[in-house]
Design goal:
Radius of gyration: 19 Å
Shape: globular
Largest sheet: 8 strands, mixed
Number of strands: 14
Helix content: 40-55%
Strand order of the largest sheet: 5-8-2-1-11-13-14-12
């Protein structure tokens, strides 16, 4: 009996300790960019959805944004279409663009909506085509990416309407131009742009690493906090490299656009979102202005 009282007392203390953070975020919008192992591992998926539903129930507006690279690659493989990458971005010809739309806005998006519902939440699936929410044009530099899109405008009204009704928007990152052409949009980039358009309190990116590491071979070399003005120098020094470049640049974009903070956390840790939001130390790498 004493052990049970002690356990219940500890649970009550945890809730009490979380109160200042609940008050801080109450009524605010938080964008979660969902990906990596947390999107594949069933136990981690369950933990992420539980976190999101809990945050919604205590009055925090959560917007869930997802990619789906492995699912797209798997479907292309089934259809006998070769996956090609240019500078880490999937080369997207017209045929691949159709598969991207089918997988992201169809199966992946609706699977996530179903998972939220099964965990006791309420969700509505969207993609950038809905309400012309994500307007895009072809990405322009010295390389040819096909129908990989650069965002030209975000219309947040469809997202805001869903949030007002108490639902969790689950957003697939495909965009559209004035002629109706569909574009494949990098999910990290889309999450940053959407967070800025919604004037979000913060943006949380789930990754498969502890955060930004000073030495990629040493998981203990985590850089807990960086300033937006440090990003360029960290890229030049090679500390930010490869696939980390678009992630960190997206965080930088969000913070420079008015989002108070951006954080990359280890999505492999169960309930990492709650640990980040409801503790002083947090986890991962925090980017601030």
């Amino acid at each position: 009996m004493e052990d049970k009282i002690l356990t219940d007392s500890m649970k009550a203390q945890v809730l009490t300790d979380a109160l200042p953070y609940i008050q801080k975020y109450y009524g605010k919008t938080v964008v979660v960019k969902y990906g990596g192992n947390a999107m594949i591992n069933p136990e981690l998926k369950q933990a992420v959805m539980s976190d999101i539903i809990l945050l919604t129930l205590i009055g925090i507006k959560i917007v869930l944004i997802h990619g789906g690279g492995p699912e797209i690659s798997g479907m292309l493989n089934k259809l006998g279409i070769e996956s090609k990458f240019v500078n880490g971005l999937r080369y997207t010809d017209k045929e691949t663009a159709e598969v991207v739309q089918m997988v992201l806005a169809g199966k992946t998006n609706k699977d996530l909506v179903s998972l939220v519902e099964c965990c006791g939440g309420k969700a509505v699936g969207l993609c950038g085509i809905d309400g012309a929410m994500i307007k895009a044009k072809p990405m322009e530099d010295e390389f040819d990416y096909g129908f990989v899109g650069e965002i030209t405008e975000i219309d947040p009204k469809p997202i805001e309407k869903i949030l007002e009704e108490g639902y969790i928007p689950v957003i697939a990152t495909v965009g559209i131009d004035e002629a109706g052409q569909v574009y494949n949009i990098n999910a990290d980039t889309a999450a940053a742009e959407i967070a800025a358009a919604l004037h979000a309190e913060n943006i949380i990116t789930l990754s498969d690493i502890p955060g930004l590491l000073r030495d990629v071979n040493n998981p203990k070399s985590l850089i807990p906090e960086i300033h937006v003005d440090e990003v360029s120098a960290l890229i030049e020094s090679g500390i930010i490299s490869g696939g980390m470049i678009p992630k960190m640049k997206s965080c930088e974009k969000a913070v420079r656009s008015g989002v108070k903070k951006a954080v990359m956390i280890d999505g492999r840790i169960p309930h990492s979102i709650l640990i980040e939001m409801f503790s002083n130390e947090g986890i991962g790498t925090l980017m601030v202005k």
